[in-house]
Amino acid sequence: PKDIRSHYNTRRISFSLKTKYKVEAYNSSLSISKNLENHWSYLRLKSDHLQINRFISEKSQIPISISSAQDDVKFSDAVNIYIETKGRNRPKTFRKSVERAYKYLLNVADDKYINLYTRKDAINLRDFLVTRGLSGSSVVRVFNTIKAIYNFIINEKGINSSNPFTGLYIDRARGVRTRKSFSIDDLRLIQRKCRSMPDELRMIVLLVSDTGLRLSEALGLEHNDLHVKNEIIPYVTIQNHPWRRLKTRGSSRKIPLVGNSLWAAKEVTKFVKNRFVFPRYNKNNYTNSNSASAALNKWIKSEGFKEHSMHSFRHSLRDRLRSVECPIEIADQIGGWAFKSVGQGYGNGYCLKILAKWMNSITKE
Predict the structure, then answer these.
(1) Strand runs labelled E in the chain
(2) Alpha-carbon gap, residue 48 to 43, rounded angstroms
(3) Is the pLDDT of residue 270 over 50?
(4) Strands 282-283 and 286-287
C-alpha cells in the first residue's frame, strides 16, 4: 500500500510458499495475507495515517499506540522464551535438546513467525529426520520438543493458531533395537571381571549390576547418599541434586544394597577424597553421563556382549525380580519406574525391610 511504503525497502514482496500442492498453497497464502493486513494496520495506527489522534480529547495526553502484534513471534524467539521460562533449574541437557530440535527444524523451514508454520513443514521435518537415520523413538522426542515449544508460546502470547506438528504419524518402532538383558551366567561373569580390576569404571558397573540404577543416577551420587555403615539394612538414596536431576517423580527412592552392589558401595566409601562417589564425571556442577556411557558401553562390547549396554543391567533387574515372583508394585518402586495407576502414588510406599527381602532373593539365584 502507498501509505506505508516508506517502511519497506522494496515495492513488492515475493517469496516461495515451498509447496507444489495448490490447496496447501492457497491456505498458506490466506494465512500470510491475513498477517500482512494485521501488520499494515499496526503500521498505520503507529504512524496515525488514519488520523485517529484528532479524535482524542485535548485533556488526554495519551497518544494512539498499540503493542507489537502478538502473532509476530518467530520460532527463534519462542525457543529463547521457552528456555528462559521452562529451563530454570534444569540440567544443561534440557537446553541442548531444545536447541537441537530447533536446528533440525531450520533444515526444512526458515525461522518464521510462529503461526506461519504449516503441516508441510511438519511432514518435511519428519522425513528429514528419517533420512538422517534417526530411530523412531528419537524422531518422537524431537517432535515432542517442537510441539512443547509451539504450545507453550501460543498459550503464553495468546496466539490464535493450531499446532501443525501434532497428530502426525511417526513410526515409533522404526530402527529401534530391543535392549537385551544379561543372563544370570553372563551377569556373574561380568561381576567377577569387575571385581578383579576394581577401577572407577568397573565400580560403576558393579554398583549398577545389583541395583538396576540408571547410569546417571549412579554417576550423580554423593557419599552422603550411600548408607553402608552401621546400618541394619544398607541402602542407597536416589534423590534430585543440582548437578543431576531425576527422570521422573517416582525415581526418587531408597534401594537396599545387596550382592556386588553392596560390595562396591563399601569399597568406594573406604577412601573419601571428594563429595562425589565418582568425581571424574561430576565437574562444574554437572554430571557428564555421556562420557561414562560411551566408555562403559565400549568396554561391555569388548568383552563379547555386542548386543548389550549399561542399560541392559536395568532390564536384567526387572527379569530377576520377575523370576522370584516379586509383586509389580514393589518392582516398580525398586526400579523407579513410572506408576501404572493413581493408587500407586498414594502413601509412602514399601519400607526398606520389605524391599530388602526381595532384593536379597535375587542374589540367591
Answers:
(1) 226-227, 235-238, 253-256, 282-283, 286-287
(2) 8
(3) yes
(4) antiparallel
Output the nine-digit C-alpha cell for 53: 489522534
The residue count of the chain comes to: 365
C-alpha angle 135/123/78, rounded to 5°?
90
3-state secondary structure of 239: coil
Distance in angstroms (rounded) separating the CA atoms of residues 199 and 216:
18
Q: Which of 16-25, 139-148, 273-282 shows the lowest mean pLDDT across its residues?
A: 16-25
Name the burial class of residue 321, with classes exposed (0-12), middle (13-18) and buried (19+) by CB atoms within 10 angstroms of its CB.
buried
Give the whole-angstrom CA distance, residue 172 versus residue 136. Answer: 4
- Measured distance CA(283)–CA(262) in Å, rounded: 26
DSSP-derived secondary structure letter, 223? G
Please state, in angstroms and rounded to a whole number, the distance separating the CA atoms of residues 105 and 41.
31
Beta bridge partners of 104: none
Which of 42, 60, 63, 41 has its CA nearest to residue 52?
A: 63
